[in-house]
Amino acid sequence: MQAMEDKILTEGKVLPGGILKVGNFLNQQIDTGLLREIGLEIADLFKDEKPTKILTIESSGIALAAAAGMAMDIPMVFAKKHKSSNVDGQVYTVTIHSFTHGNDYQAVVSRDYLTAEDRVLLVDDFLASGNALAGLVDLVGQAGAEVVGAAVAIEKKFQGGGEALRKQGLRIEPLACIESMSDTGVTFCHL
Amino acid sequence: MQAMEDKILTEGKVLPGGILKVGNFLNQQIDTGLLREIGLEIADLFKDEKPTKILTIESSGIALAAAAGMAMDIPMVFAKKHKSSNVDGQVYTVTIHSFTHGNDYQAVVSRDYLTAEDRVLLVDDFLASGNALAGLVDLVGQAGAEVVGAAVAIEKKFQGGGEALRKQGLRIEPLACIESMSDTGVTFCHL
Description:
2 copies of one chain form a homodimer. By secondary structure, chain A is an alpha/beta fold.
């Protein structure tokens, strides 16, 4: 998606440790014009899959999932993050390891919001190690529902998560895919 | 807003302790058709104020703020919640007491995302005790920016937060306002 690549080049900041800072247009502050375009692009990419629901994880996936849900006119659901596993039987839950923060957390969704009839499109802001996306795939599986694919705003290909998940058969559509990055700039994938 | 009141009557659940459960259309699962209407309604209510930015707080305000931001074509920013006050000097921060969870937390926004030139519209899902909204007003004040008003999806008038904030001069527009609620049902405010 050209608009996303342009935005990364003009406003993204590469920080030490393989971190791409997009806080001023995609995360803590969101460019809502770009957000609308993202929603329409995701809707177009996955329209033939006829998803019935969008699933993301708090917090930075929520705006993207809402935009995609509005564009496709289907409900969106977000998994909540909990530090402990002290949750009741009314939920699906999975343990996810965060490379960024170096800890584990629980991702939790009420059983009311995912059913065996659902065709679920996963949406998130970043795909790096792939742990969050793999966790969402697990939650959908617990519900007996089907994953139709995943849309991510930015894939950091050099962190390998996308390759591992694609090998398991998951269709992943990044709106921008980063081959490599350094102090001197960002190189996008040759898809 | 009729669509919001209808949804509360048909899908909301009153739980003990003054809690209104709206998790299946406004919180963990979001009805994106209703969300689009909410965005347009907020845009219409505040169009004369010409806000330059929308500010909310994670997580349940994000989708509403994104929808309003898309409808008004202005950026949205969300304050992050932290348990400790261990934050650096590059942020505005305020301590907020949560009645729901019985604890304090820090709401934090980067100084990059609120400036003295901003005219800020606050957006949140619930207005009850008013502590979260008062915290957002504080953050905007720290930036030297102006608050043009607040839009909340649901005001629980009987918890008093709205009255206190209006006495301080804040314009608050609830899309649904609840006068009282009990096992037998919900009564909306006579505005």
